[in-house]
TrEMBL record:
<dbReference type="GO" id="GO:0008168">
    <property type="term" value="F:methyltransferase activity"/>
</dbReference>
<dbReference type="Pfam" id="PF13649">
    <property type="entry name" value="Methyltransf_25"/>
</dbReference>
<dbReference type="InterPro" id="IPR041698">
    <property type="entry name" value="Methyltransf_25"/>
</dbReference>
<keyword id="KW-0808">Transferase</keyword>
<dbReference type="InterPro" id="IPR029063">
    <property type="entry name" value="SAM-dependent_MTases_sf"/>
</dbReference>
<protein>
    <submittedName>
        <fullName>Methyltransferase type 11</fullName>
    </submittedName>
</protein>
<dbReference type="GO" id="GO:0032259">
    <property type="term" value="P:methylation"/>
</dbReference>
<feature type="domain" description="Methyltransferase">
    <location>
        <begin position="33"/>
        <end position="125"/>
    </location>
</feature>
<keyword id="KW-0489">Methyltransferase</keyword>
Amino acid sequence: MWNERYAEDDFAYGTAPNDFLVEQAGRLPEGQVLCLAEGEGRNAVWLAARGHTVTAMDGSAVGLEKAHRLAAERGVRIETRCSDLAHFEIAPNTWSGIVSIFAHVPPDLRRRVHRRVVGGLRPGGVLILEAYTPEQLRFGTGGPPVVELTMDLATLEDELAGLVFEVARERERDVFEGRYHQGLGHVVQIVGRKSEGD
């Protein structure tokens, strides 16, 4: 599915970074940033332009090829890793920042990934996450077609135990990102920091 979607000439979700990431990126410490399920690279390239050392991972080689092309157009460099999230190893205590923007996967896999995320952050490292909630299915403006792939705040607070939440909310907001996110939606937004003592 994703190779087919990213094979389109246009960027499926645009080339501009996610609004919530732009709003919160100042919280990211200096150092290496990992972008999960990054697709065509819009967030990774923007972070690289801000001076971060960025690795973009995604299961679609087609998407990551476009990410490299976008990085070249913007005059920045990113690393990419082509891997399914189920098999992607997040090395412990490695990342200053991890970014998860609309990375919707089945619940069992999501729980495993989120435990790896908490473990993978360095002390003081920050997770920035935005995802659609179950309420999004009423809006029909993008996101997963089934409730099982959505996320809610209570579940995320449990799955991301070990982080101190600087932002943790559900809200309605306009999301205009390429062809596939178009209009008012219902999202959950998280900024979580791993405590310095961990």
